[in-house]
Amino acid sequence: MSKLIIIGAGAAGIFCAVNVARMCPQLQVIVLEKSNHLLAKVRISGGGRCNLTHAHESISTMSKCYPRGEQFVKKTFQSFFTKDTIEWFAQRGVKTKTEADGRMFPESNSSESIIECLLNEAKKYNVEIKLHCGVDKIIPPLGTNKQFTLNTTTQEKMQCDFVLVATGGFPKAEQFQFITALGHSISNPIPSLFTFNATKSAKTHLPKLTDLMGVVVQDTHLKIKGTKLEASGPTLITHWGLSGPAVLTLSAYGAKVLYDADYLYEVQINWCAFFNETNALEKIREMRNMLGAQTIALRNPFGLPNRLWEFLLQSAEIQPKQKWSELQAKQQNLLAKQLCSYNFLANGKTTYKDEFVTAGGVTLAEVTPHSCESKLIPNLFFAGEILDVDGKTGGFNFQHAWSSGWAVAKAIVAK
Ligand SMILES: Cc1cc2nc3c(=O)[nH]c(=O)nc-3n(C[C@H](O)[C@H](O)[C@H](O)COP(=O)(O)OP(=O)(O)OC[C@H]3O[C@@H](n4cnc5c(N)ncnc54)[C@H](O)[C@@H]3O)c2cc1C
User: Fold this and answer.
1) φ, ψ for residue 112 (rounded to 5)?
2) Which of the listed residues 351, 382, 398 is the one where a domain comes to its end?
3) Whose Cα sits closest to atom 9 in ligand 1?
4) Ligand 1 pocket check: which of 18, 37, 45, 130 to mutate, most ligand atoms within 8 Å of Cβ?
5) Residue 98 is part of which domain span?
């Protein structure tokens, strides 16, 4: 009987385990997990609801949501895509629902439904799971020994024919040593999906942007100055800086650039993305001509939250009681600039509480995308976040875990 050992009982490892065990009953499947928890990230993901995938019907648009690994996921998605995830769970009693922004969750709104489903499958197909059993060394087949040997933290030496490394990402390069020892190279780990901290300014009587904490601005467009990085969508002002979908998207696509800049950078914010400085100025002049007698603070023609409008007026040196007709040319220009090219000085990052991933991992050039098999060592596979693949927020990282776990299962079945 051939044996597969899967290292790591996360989404990718368990998904591969249950599928390969079902499709290949003559294979012994063992999952080794160093902690005492199975599927720990699935449990806490999506605020306990598990955002398990994203409603995308086209592989080419979905794959663009992966700042690293776009070409790789295009291949794994060919055999297991979003509709397959939905069907796979539905066939096992877990119905899913789609939120307005495309994120998909179990109808129960609980990640426990996903965990229960996966563990039922594991039981049904005799997947053996060992907790408190980490692997610290993988010795590939050598000479007459045709099997892999795994050294575990429980001082066991386990032999097997196939190995899947599904240990998730690691924040430090040294933690990949058990993989680099095999001759594989890694792309250095760096954080992705974080929020932007505001530079602490000197004490002043003037309000700060962070005083507006809790304000959400729906149609913003953000650019990182000096780069080509830009993103649109809602922005949330927090007590430490900026968060929300546009910020998280920028943090994912800009992970490397911002890391290299030591997280000191300038963000140019357009608070009303339907306008640019030129037509915002025209709108301001129009207001001045039409509603001259009205107080500027009380008439906000850009659809912004009132607190932000008042803040931007102050930043443009406009007095709270000033009328539209009293607006000087300098103030008009300044207001258009504050609205469409607001300058936010960022200093540092804060990890996003609901979802964070490590960018970096096993170099993709050394792994065959269709099977996720090592190009260096036959019968050694990688799935999930250990690979140098990461998606933006919204269910993309779990979809990669399911798809790569599936690719490994299919490849082992075919051997
Ligand atoms: C708080 C949070 C919320 C998230 N929410 C979402 C979300 O809603 N949607 C989404 O798409 N993504 C989400 N993500 C990202 C997603 O959870 C991960 O991308 C995904 O879990 C990766 O799956 P994985 O199986 O590759 O790794 P993991 O889930 O990290 O599992 C790896 C397992 O391997 C074990 N392990 C590590 N080293 C060893 C070893 N040497 N020996 C044995 N075992 C080992 C670990 O203990 C772990 O149990 C979230 C992440 C976090 C942290």
Assistant:
1) -60, -30
2) 351
3) 395
4) 45
5) 3-190+357-414
Q: 54 and 173: one domain?
A: yes
Residue 83: count of CB within 10 angstroms of its CB: 12
| β-sheet bridge partners, residue 151 | 137, 157
Nearest to 349 by CA among 257, 237, 269, 264: 264
pTM score of the predicted model: 0.92
Domain end marker among 305, 321, 351: 351
Cα dist from 247 to 210, 240, 268, 333, 383, whole Å: 15, 13, 12, 26, 28
What is the CA(41)–ligand 1 centre distance, in A? 5
Interval 309-324: pLDDT, tens? 999 999 999 998 999 9
Same domain for 268 and 156? no
Say whether 357 sits in a helix, a strand or coil.
strand
What are the C-alpha distances in Å from 171 to residues 228, 357, 360, 362?
26, 9, 9, 13
pLDDT of residue 21: 98
Q: Can you give the pLDDT at residue 372?
A: 98
Question: Is the pLDDT score of 355 beyond 70?
Answer: no
Rg (CA), the chain: 26
Name which of 122-131, 192-201, 315-324 the model is least confident about.
192-201
**CATH at residue 140:** 3.50.50.60
The closest of 168, 216, 72, 116 to 385, measured between CA atoms, is: 168
